[in-house]
Each structure stands twice: as C-alpha cells, then as structure tokens.
Amino acid sequence: MLPTHPAAPATLAGPDARATRLALTGVIVTVTIWGGNVVLLKTLLSHLNAESINTGRFLLASAVLVTLAVRAHGWPRWTWQTWLTVAGVGLLGNSVFQTLFLIGIRLSPAGVAGVVNGMVPVLVLPLGLLLGTRVTRRQATGVAVAFGGLLTLLLLTRQPGSPVTPGGMAWLLAAATAWALYTLFNRTLSGRLGALPFVAFSLALGSLPYLLYAAPHVQLGGTPPLAWAGVALSGLGANVVAYLAWARGAQVLGAARTSVWNTLAPVIALMLGAALLHERLPLTVWAAAAVILGGAALANWPGRTAAPPTGGTRHNAPTG
C-alpha cells in the first residue's frame, strides 16, 4: 500500500529515474555489442569457418535463452501449429540470416556490413505494407532517403578497386531482408507468446537445420583458444546479454524511443572497423553510409505512428 504522505510522489520518482538510466545504459551497451559483433565476426572468420562460428554461437545462446525462458515462464503449452510457426520463423531469422550474413561479412569490409545491417528497420516498413501496416509520411521520407544512400553504395561497387563488391552487397542485402521479415513475424508472435519464450525457442528450433548441415564442417583442432573465446563472447553478448538489455530498454523507454538507437550500431561498426581492422573506406562510402543511417533514424524517430504496434518487443536490430 502506498503511503499517503505528500512526499510519496517524489519518493517514487527516484526509482523510476534510476530504472530509466539503467534501461538507457543497457540500450547503449546493446548497440555497442551489436556494432562490435560485426567486427568480431569478421576477425573470427580469419581463424574459423562460418559453420564452426555459428555452431558455437547457436548452441551456447540457445542453451542459455531456453533455460532462462523455462525458468521464467515454464515450458510452453503451445499447439503443434504454433511450434511449427515458431520453428519456421526461427529458421528464417537464424539459419537463413546467419548463413547469408557471414558470407556477406567475408566478402565485405566490416563497416559496410554494419551499415547494410542498419537497413533492417528501414526494410521492415515497406515489407510491412504487404501485411497491411500503414506508413506515415515521415517514415516514407526516411525510407526514401535510406534507399537513396543504398543506391549510392550499390553504384560504388562498379568502381574499380572499390572495397564494396556487388557479391558482398548482394549477400548482405539478402541477409538484411531475411532479418526484416523475421522482425515482422517477431512483433506478432512475441506479443502473443511472450518475447523471451518466442526468441529462445525460435533460436533453438530454427538453428537445428543449420546445425545438422554444419556438424561435419566444424573445426575442432588447430584453432586458437582465443578464437573459441571470441565465439562464446559473440554468442553470449550479441544473442543473450544484448537481447535481454534491449528488451528491458523497450519495456521501460518504449519501443519507438528505443528503436532509434539501432542507428548507432552501424556507426560503431564503421568506427571499430577503421580502428581495429584498419579498414580504409573512401569518403564516398562514408557519405553513403551517413545518408543511409540518417534515413533510418528519420524513419524510426519517435512520433505519432499511423498504426500502433501489434504488441511485443520490437527486436529490429540484427544480432549478427
């Protein structure tokens, strides 16, 4: 029971302000992890093949998330149709996305891979039109600006000696489209089934086909222990810690306010790629990246939306 003393509202403001600060800190940590994860994956690919990296990440993240989901909510009592839907959406967002994304990273600078990933919140809007979601004029303008920057980036692939290649861009765009489609289904299913149970079991079930394919290709010998530590860091950081912090941020700050921070992850990827991997991208690539990220920020800036979200946590940013 709340005290009736006049100072009660001031007392309540303290914890609320602290919760907001913690949630905001978690969101900033999340986008830092997601941006840094692109650079980490690019580095790991010089020591391990994609199958080894994804197998380690999938197994570790699935085990932790499923354990957390069952402890918090118990074992899901879903119909077999729901289990199939979760598995199918998880297949798209994990096996398909991760396969396409790591191929794209191997063929592209980490900074460029991070920027193309930044297109995901933009791709969600036009794809959502197919499901009847309305788009505001501001959102449409942001999408147009971002696609203008993407077109510039695509044109740069035709320049001799450009670090941006047509093949790399094609794989990265395919990966971003796969994650955008996953995000659309995520919004509906996480609202109906619970965000944590959906993400946990969609990852566990959706990664099974990939694990079966990858098992014969896993490199167990001759790999530096530090590389496996990097795989564990990627799996726990990008797929567990970052997700939980992002979900908390969306709960406390609101999905609209939180989603704008997605734009920082590609910026961090660009900066870390230049600082740690010594990627020297032409000024034209940086300019195109700025246009893409500016459009993404405009499209996702908090404001009055044409249609309310269908519920659940918006898990827009690709975890890499």
UniProtKB/TrEMBL annotation:
Compartments, record wording: Membrane
Record-linked InterPro entries: AA-Vitamin_Transporters, EamA_dom, EmrE-like
Keyword hit for Kinase: no
Main location: membrane
Keywords, ordered alphabetically: Membrane, Transmembrane, Transmembrane helix
Every EamA domain range: 24-154, 168-300
Membrane topology: Multi-pass membrane protein
Segments passing through the bilayer: 22-41, 53-70, 82-105, 111-132, 139-156, 168-186, 193-214, 226-247, 259-277, 283-301
Pfam families attached to this UniProt entry: EamA
Source superkingdom: Bacteria
Family recorded in the similarity comment: Belongs to the EamA transporter family.
Protein name as it appears in the record: EamA domain-containing protein
Organism of derivation: Deinococcus seoulensis
